[in-house]
Amino acid sequence: MDDRKKITLSRPGDGCGRVPLGLTVLVVEDSTYAAEALRLLCLRSGARIRRADSLNSARKHLKVYRPAALIVDLGLPDGSGAELIEECAQASPRIGAILGLSGDSFGEETAIAAGADGFLPKPITSLARFQAEILGGLPPDLHPAATGLPEAEIIHPDPLAYRDDMAHAAELLTVEGDGRILDYVAQFLRGVARSADDACLAEAADVLARARARGTPLASPTARIAGLVQQRLREAQPL
């Protein structure tokens, strides 16, 4: 199934500017919080969203249909999102717009090198940036005739989605004896924390990642991560 459709424009003065109305966007993102931000951005843009939380799930989606746009997080539980970007960039027919997504400083360079048309940095909050990146990657025949820009709108995901990510991390931290899980936890929490502008948790995730890379003792950084995750879960509990 091919979901490429002609983009239409919102009515003048409604504050939306040019938006990808009617298009389907496949989001490959393991964080519930980041995916919620993208869902809101798609909703505000009039686009439909489908989500996959791993490379394997994304590939299953892509066997069934071809979305107009693909947004891929670079850090996924079963590998690097750059692999999927490269596969889709080289496929024929090609998806209209392929974007990389990451909270890491090197993310944009990695995504573009893999063949992405654009890049979205975490936190993902700007409607204007979201629409500009998608439209910038689409072929000319799918571009609207006008070039209006959306208002400088900022979206705010549901905090409960952040709690869901913390619960997922807490569960992973109970698994013992596999350093690869700690690698993933550090990567996952770094991206989630940056999406939510949680500098303390992001820094702790960086410390854990560096400890793993250097082969230094993990007990202290792991305990700190676990404590912060539990604190976030307690803070999210209703009164």
Automatic annotation (TrEMBL):
Kindly indicate whether the keyword RNA-binding belongs to this entry: no
Give the range the annotation lists for the signal sequence.
none
The record, for InterPro entries, names:
Bact_response_regulator, CheY-like_superfamily, Sig_transdc_resp-reg_receiver
Pfam families the record matches:
Response_reg
Record has Cytoplasm as a keyword: no
Q: Which organism is it from?
A: Antarcticimicrobium luteum
The record ties this protein, via CDD domains, to:
REC (cd00156)
Cite the Response regulatory domain residue spans from the record: 24-137
Residue stretches spanning the membrane: none
Name the chain's protein. Answer: Response regulator
Q: Name one GO biological process term.
A: phosphorelay signal transduction system
**Organism's domain of life?**
Bacteria
Q: Which residues carry this modification: 4-aspartylphosphate?
A: D73
Q: Which UniProt keywords apply?
A: Phosphoprotein
Question: Which PANTHER family does this one have?
Answer: RESPONSE REGULATORY DOMAIN-CONTAINING PROTEIN (PTHR44591:SF3), STRESS RESPONSE REGULATOR PROTEIN 1 (PTHR44591)
